[in-house]
Each structure stands twice: as C-alpha cells, then as structure tokens.
Specification:
The protein is α/β, with parallel strands linked by helices and 314 residues long. It has nine helices and nine strands. A nine-stranded mixed sheet has the order 1-2-3-5-4-6-7-8-9, sandwiched between helices. Strand 6, helix 5 (181-189) and strand 7 form a beta-alpha-beta unit. The longest helix is centred in the middle third of the chain and has 18 residues, at 148-165. The protein is globular. The termini are far apart.
C-alpha cells in the first residue's frame, strides 16, 4: 500500500481530522531565573477550556531581536504520573532526562508541556488516580471514535502553534525530541506536523508484532484502532520522510525488541531512499544498553539538532 493510502487509513484509525485551532488564550503564571536561561510557567489552550500547563525555557542571549531555533520536548511515561513537564525542564525527576534544560543551555528555546494524564493534567475530580485516569481517558476517546494518540497529536500541534507565536523563536527552525513515550509522541506527530523540521526519538519503536509476541502492556498512545491491517508503527514513522529524523535505541531495551527495531529502521530508511533523502534518516543502536538516554545517545541527539536547526541560521 503506497504511503499516501496508508496515511489515509492512519488518519481514519486515529479519529479523523483535527479541529481548527481556537485562540491560544495564553496565561503566564511565573518566571524562574536559572543559570543561563529563564523558565516561564504558563498555559495555552488545546481546545476551548482545555488549558495545557507547560514550561518555556528561554536562553539569556535570546530575545525578539535575536530569535533562536526551538525544540519541543515530549516527556516520558515510566508510570510516573506526578512527573511531566518538570522533568525535561530540569526541575524534578531523573537528571538523565533534564533534556530541555540541557538544550536551553545550548541556545535553543525549549517548550516542555504536560501530556494528558500527567503532572497537572490528572483527574480534576480526584476520583481516578494515576493509571486509572489514563485508562479512563483512553476509553473515553475510543467510544467517541478516536483514540488517545489523536488527542496527543492535537495537543502537540498546539505546542507548535504556541512556539510560533513567540517572537523569540525562528518559525522555520522548530524541532522536537522525546524519550520513551515521548519518542512515540515524536513519530506520532511527525507525519501530521510539517512545521516540525527536525525530529529525534529515544528508545521507543515498539511494533504491534513485537508487542503481541512478547505480551507487552505498552503506553496507550501506541494503539491506533484498525491500523494493523495496513501497517505497523515503523510505517507510521516512515511518513516523516524526507525531513531530518534520528532514532536512538538500547540493544537490551525490553520495550522495543531489538529484532523488531532492526526491521523497523529498514522500513523507515527505504521510505527515505524512495524520496531521495537517504542522509536525512539516521539511527543508533547501543550495544548492551537498556531503556536509557546514554551519553552517546545524547551526543547524537544534540548533534542532530545542531546540524539541522543551528546550521545556516541567519
């Protein structure tokens, strides 16, 4: 099935087209000054009345007169529902994943939003805790003819709207990065958001074939109703071609069986080759590594953004 036909089936499985974006209705909450950058705590609306809490990291040398490239960072899952934006923003969680703060120190404007069900986007009624609320939301979208991935993509598209609204950001120099569930979010949004010019995913390309074989319970955003008849997750990621795209993997990462990863990256590479963009897709598999962001993985991530977002910057 040609990618164009597959993409139509993918859109149908996700739940159909996304609505026209409403006003962002941005609300600034506080500003935290850090060493070399500041963090603006804020909200913007994905849908009317649906405010997304986020943190915007702006390097000290960046201003409307001297704008910079930007990277949206989608946080991980890890069953840590109390953690969302604050981990990549460098304010909580594992220092390994303080990636937004690290990118800000490199001169990028960085947006770290909360995904649905995490940190400040948990059950407002208090009735459903942690994974129970995530299950509730997933099922709520299913009976509406959509899925959680549809909502995640909508929210990420609004993140790009917000970044482009900021005078400190170079509109044509926006990338995104994610670890684990954040990597899933990266290859989910990529096919639908051409304004994202450069993408990196770390440690997550679980195929349905691998999930079924290993009997894995994976993050809800991975599951798109009806799509497995037409393709698997690498076929989704392949739709990002020809834009620059890099993936990191750990050889011993149980969440992404390595044999499936090796087959998957071939599918992605073939689509890039078909579009004469072979050099725009790269991947790295670290021997002996698990579900981590290793120093080498981070070096490859940062090099990818510098090469495609900072080079030839006016």
């Amino acid at each position: 099935m040609p990618p164009t036909d597959f993409q139509k089936k993918l859109l149908q499985g996700l739940g159909g087209e996304w609505p026209e974006p409403p006003a962002l209705n941005v609300k600034h909450l506080e500003t935290i000054q850090k060493d070399g950058y500041r963090i603006e705590s804020l909200t913007y609306e994905a849908e009317p009345g649906d405010a997304i809490p986020a943190m915007l990291l702006i390097p000290d040398m960046v201003s409307p007169a001297h704008p910079a490239p930007a990277v949206a960072v989608w946080h991980q899952h890890a069953g840590q529902y109390h953690l969302g934006k604050s981990e990549p923003a460098g304010l909580a969680g594992n220092p390994m994943h303080h990636t937004g703060a690290a990118l800000a120190k490199e001169g990028f404007v960085v947006l770290c939003p909360d995904a649905l069900c995490f940190e400040e986007r948990q059950d407002s009624t208090g009735k459903l805790k942690a994974g129970k609320f995530e299950r509730f939301e997933f099922l709520r979208y299913i009976v509406a003819g959509k899925c959680m991935a549809w909502k995640n993509i909508l929210d990420m598209k609004r993140a790009i709207d917000y970044l482009q609204s900021r005078p400190e950001v170079v509109d044509e120099k926006i990338g995104c990065y994610g670890h684990s569930m954040g990597s899933t979010h990266t290859w989910l949004v990529g096919p639908w958001e051409p304004r994202i010019k450069c993408l990196v995913g770390n440690c997550c390309l679980p195929t349905y074939k691998g999930i079924h074989r290993e009997h894995m319970l994976h993050c809800f955003p991975n599951f798109i109703p009806g799509i497995y008849e037409y393709g698997d997750t690498p076929d989704i990621a392949a739709l990002i071609a020809p834009r620059p795209f890099h993936l990191n993997f750990g050889e011993r990462d149980g969440g992404s069986p390595i044999d499936e990863v090796r087959n998957g990256v071939k599918i992605i590479a073939n689509n890039y080759a078909a579009k004469h963009a072979e050099t725009n897709f790269t991947y790295y598999i670290e021997e002996g590594a698990g579900h981590v962001l290793s120093p080498i993985m981070w070096d490859k991530t940062l090099s990818h953004f510098k090469r495609h977002l900072l080079s030839q910057q006016s």
